[in-house]
Each structure stands twice: as structure tokens, then as C-alpha cells.
């Protein structure tokens, strides 16, 4: 569990931070101190991962505290909050005290949370031994699946994208990756919900217990992205922790079955396979016939033969069969049909 120490002599602000972070990141162990002296006592107990301190405080201000922490606990990153945009103090804090981030108040809680996440990732990256890459499954295999796949660590740092996910994220419409490689949603609240789901999936040792489905709104007028977050082990070594695997689907781009696989699996002709593809998009046979550029009478004739070849008797039964078949996998060799 990550331990975050907040320091401020304003009790009301500390109470507000406690409420906000209990909601946004309940998996964090948040500790609160009302002075630099109290903060140093907490730090002496060990196990603190990130320090967040106000600049203006009693006998020892935030910058002096940051200097002392850097000298005694150089591995603990410090984030400073200040009520004034004092550029000289910011430069001094960053250069002399090696402060990780410097925010002016009032700072949105979500933005502060992002800074803490980045600081936690920096600490983990510095402490963890180099990961041994053991390719048990080729990344190319994930490109065959009919949905986007993103693998992240517990701080939402992206470690793998399949082709479909990369294309979705490149649109920056509902999901994006920031400059630090952190996966984010379109808004602060949705990002917090996504990050909490990821953290829960990574922390839980009960596989499947923390699975979460989310609907992520988009900046455009397109329908929401559907996201499913689940846990996944990253390896067998002791230092490696569980990763989160995120499955993403876009209702604006429904997946169509492979014509090539349909023909080979069910012995369909090109025309019959094209009609099946059209039936996966259209609920009415007449609409599917129009999409396949054939008459309704021809479509009925084709559908009768398709039922015989697939062992089905109803359109819904046919669609279910195709959806659960390898025809839904993407084949690299297949060209898009006209």
C-alpha cells in the first residue's frame, strides 16, 4: 500500500484533502501532519512514499522541509503547494531541494492526484530490479482479437497496446496517454474511476474479484467507449506485481467477421459470406440484402443455403454461431471487402 504524507497547518484544508483522497484513492494510506516537525516525526517511522507539503507554515516552511527531507530521505519525492505563484521559490525548490512538482493553490484535487501517481511511479521505477521479459505469448496474438487491449501497471502506466487499442487511443477521444505514459479518460472524474479500477485490480489477489466495467464518455458526439478492467499477473518473480488488463470496444466501429474464415469454416461462397457479414450489422434481411448489393429474393435463397451449411435454422442462431467462432478474429492476410 502506498503511503502519502500531507503537511499543512490549515486543518480545514487537511480535512478536505482527507475526504477527497479517501474517495479518489481509498487504496492509499494517507497520513496528515499539521507542521513540518510532526511530518519529520512521521517520516522517521519509515514507509512513506510521497510527501505533499504546503509552502507557508510556522517555524519551518515547505521549502525548508523539502531540503531536509531530500538530505535525510533522498528517495522520497516531494510535492509543494503554495498560495502564491512565486517563481523564484519554485525554481529554488526544484533546483536545490529537488522537489518533484510545484503547484499553486487552489490546486484541483484530481491534478494533485495525477502528480502523486507520477511520483509513485518514479519511486517504483527507481527501486524495482530490471524486469525480465519472457514472451510467453507473442504480442501479435493480441492483434488478432476483435477488441482493444491495454496492459498497465498499478499506476496506470501503459506497458502494452495491441493495434486496435493504439488506434483508439491515437484519436484522443475517450482514452488517451499523457506525456508520462499514464492512461487517462476524457475527464477528471472518469480518470479517477479508471485509475481506481486499475489499482484495485492490481492490488487484489483474488482473481476476478475486482473486475470493473466502465462506460467512458468522449469529447466528440460519438457513443461512449466500453471498458472492462481485470487483473493479470506480470510474472512469477517476487518483486513483480499484478498488472491490470483493459479491454476496450468502440460501438462506432463494430467488429465484422472475417470473410476468408467464414468461407473456409462453413464452406460458404464469396456472396454467401458477404451476406453473413451484412447480417452481423443489420437485423432485417432486407437491409442486409441492400448492404450486400443483392435483391431480397436472392438474399432469401442465399440464407437458406447458409442455414444448411452452418447447421442453423434462424438468423439469431446464425449470428450467435458466428460471434463465438474464430471468424471474429482479425486475419492479417485478409483485405477489406468492398
Query: Which word captures the global form?
Result: elongated
Number of strands: 12
Look at the structure and give the mean pLDDT.
82
CATH structural architecture of the largest domain: 3-Layer(aba) Sandwich
In what range is the share of β-strand residues? Answer: 15-25%
Helix content: 40-55%
Assembly classification = single chain
**Low-pLDDT runs:** 130-136, 234-240, 332-338
Our measurement of the CA-to-CA distance between the termini, rounded to an integer number of angstroms, reads 54 Å
CATH topology of the largest domain: Rossmann fold
Keywords, please?
5-stranded antiparallel β-sheet, disordered C terminus, 5-stranded parallel β-sheet, 3 domains, Beta-Lactamase, single chain
Care to describe what's here?
- There is one protein chain.
- The strands form three sheets. Strands 2-1-3-4-5 form a five-stranded parallel sheet, with helices on both faces. Strands 7-6-12-11-10 form a five-stranded antiparallel sheet.
- It has 13 helices and twelve strands.
- It is elongated.
- By secondary structure, the chain is α/β, with parallel strands linked by helices.
- The termini are far apart.
- The protein has helices spanning 11-24, 36-44, 62-72, 87-96, 109-127, 139-142, 163-170, 188-203, 259-266, 270-281, 285-291, 296-310, 315-323; strands at 3-7, 29-33, 50-54, 78-82, 101-104, 148-152, 158-161, 175-177, 183-185, 212-216, 225-232, 243-249.
- The protein folds into three domains: 3-127, Response regulator (Rossmann fold); 139-249, 2-Layer Sandwich (Beta-Lactamase), CATH 3.30.450.20; 259-328, Arc Repressor Mutant, subunit A (Orthogonal Bundle).
Amino acid at each position: 500500500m502506498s503511503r502519502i504524507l500531507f503537511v499543512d497547518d490549515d486543518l480545514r484544508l487537511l480535512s478536505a484533502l482527507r475526504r477527497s483522497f479517501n474517495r479518489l484513492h481509498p487504496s492509499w494510506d494517507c497520513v496528515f501532519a499539521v507542521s513540518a516537525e510532526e511530518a519529520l516525526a512521521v517520516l522517521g517511522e519509515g514507509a512513506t512514499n510521497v510527501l505533499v507539503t504546503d509552502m507557508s507554515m510556522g517555524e519551518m516552511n515547505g521549502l525548508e522541509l523539502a531540503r531536509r527531507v531530500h538530505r535525510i530521505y533522498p528517495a522520497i519525492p516531494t510535492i509543494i503547494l503554495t498560495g502564491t505563484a512565486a517563481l523564484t521559490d519554485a525554481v529554488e525548490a526544484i533546483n536545490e531541494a529537488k522537489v518533484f512538482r510545484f503547484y499553486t493553490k487552489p490546486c484541483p484535487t484530481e491534478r494533485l492526484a495525477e502528480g502523486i501517481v507520477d511520483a509513485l511511479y518514479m519511486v517504483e521505477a527507481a527501486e524495482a530490479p530490471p524486469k525480465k521479459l519472457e514472451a510467453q505469448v507473442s504480442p501479435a496474438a493480441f492483434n488478432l482479437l476483435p477488441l482493444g487491449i491495454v496492459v498497465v501497471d498499478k499506476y496506470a502506466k501503459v506497458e502494452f497496446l495491441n493495434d486496435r487499442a493504439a488506434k483508439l487511443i491515437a484519436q484522443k477521444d475517450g482514452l488517451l496517454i499523457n506525456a508520462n505514459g499514464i492512461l487517462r479518460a476524457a475527464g477528471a472524474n472518469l480518470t479517477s474511476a479508471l485509475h481506481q479500477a486499475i489499482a484495485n485490480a492490481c492490488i487484489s489477489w483474488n482473481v476476478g474479484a475486482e473486475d470493473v466495467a466502465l462506460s467512458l464518455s468522449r469529447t466528440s458526439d460519438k457513443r461512449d467507449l466500453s471498458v472492462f478492467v481485470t487483473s493479470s499477473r506480470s510474472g512469477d518473480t517476487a518483486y513483480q506485481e499484478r498488472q491490470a488488463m483493459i479491454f476496450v470496444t468502440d460501438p462506432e466501429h463494430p467488429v465484422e467477421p472475417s470473410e476468408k474464415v467464414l468461407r473456409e469454416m462453413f464452406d460458404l461462397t464469396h456472396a454467401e459470406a458477404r451476406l453473413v457479414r451484412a447480417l452481423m450489422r443489420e437485423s432485417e434481411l432486407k437491409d442486409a440484402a441492400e448492404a450486400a448489393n443483392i435483391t431480397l429474393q436472392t438474399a432469401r435463397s442465399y440464407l437458406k443455403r447458409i442455414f444448411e451449411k452452418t447447421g442453423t435454422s434462424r438468423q439469431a442462431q446464425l449470428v450467435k454461431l458466428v460471434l463465438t467462432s474464430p471468424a471474429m478474429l482479425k486475419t492479417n492476410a485478409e483485405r477489406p471487402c468492398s
